[in-house]
Amino acid sequence: MRARKKKNTVPRLERVADRFTPTIPAGEEEIRVEVGCGKGKFITALAKDHPNVQFYALEKIPDVIVMAAEKAAREEIGNVKFLLADAKDLTEGIDIKFMGLDENRKPILENVAHEALCPSHSVSVLYLNFSDPLPNNKHAHLRLTHADFLERYRTVLKADGHIEFKTDNKPLFDFSVEQFQECNYEIYDYTEDLHHSDIPNPYHTEYETRFSEMGMPIYSLKARPPKEKA
Ligand SMILES: C[S@@+](CC[C@H](N)C(=O)[O-])C[C@H]1O[C@@H](n2cnc3c(N)ncnc32)[C@H](O)[C@@H]1O
Hints:
Number of strands: 9
Structural class: alpha/beta
Distance between the termini: 41 Å
Order of helices and strands: HEHEHEEEEHEHEHE
Number of helices: 6
Strand content: 25-35%
Helix content: 25-40%
Largest sheet: 7 strands, mixed
Strand order of the largest sheet: 3-2-1-6-7-9-8
Radius of gyration: 18 Å
Bound molecules: S-adenosylmethionine
């Protein structure tokens, strides 16, 4: 999603700071997560109708997530929290940090470990809605349905949890099916025209509304992670 850089994003973020969390805490009864929530239409509507579920919405662009958090604040939705974060940090990892220059003006780089944003095996449903298609194959590893991401999601999903994925983009959909299969997920509720199928789909995202109004089919699937080896 392209958003123009807005000057007042920081004060706006400060005003809705109580809607944010740096990490997803352990111990909630039911947790659902949307990765790449955009302006938050989908997650806020879903959260409103499911007050006993705790929702978390991840988005990496400050100008965009602030709109989602403001929407939740305006509508007084208490059971959705926002994480200004990259999906790759859902699980623990190593970041390369620039620490300055040495006496020969060479960069000093250090590997710094970061903790997982999400407790392992805690998430019931993980939503991927209209993820950026990134058509250039050079960027395939950044697609949110790339095998590297599917492996991270497997770590955070409960044993009986699942992923729900929707897109307007056929090449991304085909790529994603391959990646789910490569990672041994079990695909179900597969459709190449969600809006003309029997699969219930009461919550539409901003992109979904836009593309379906243009008459484009919506591709969708659900996927269960492979069972952990005992
Ligand atoms: C095309 S938009 C779709 C927004 C919304 N889900 C919808 O359907 O209207 C994709 C969103 O995913 C976010 N995104 C892409 N890669 C991400 C990542 N690695 N971590 C977090 N958010 C990401 C983008 O910033 C963008 O807002």
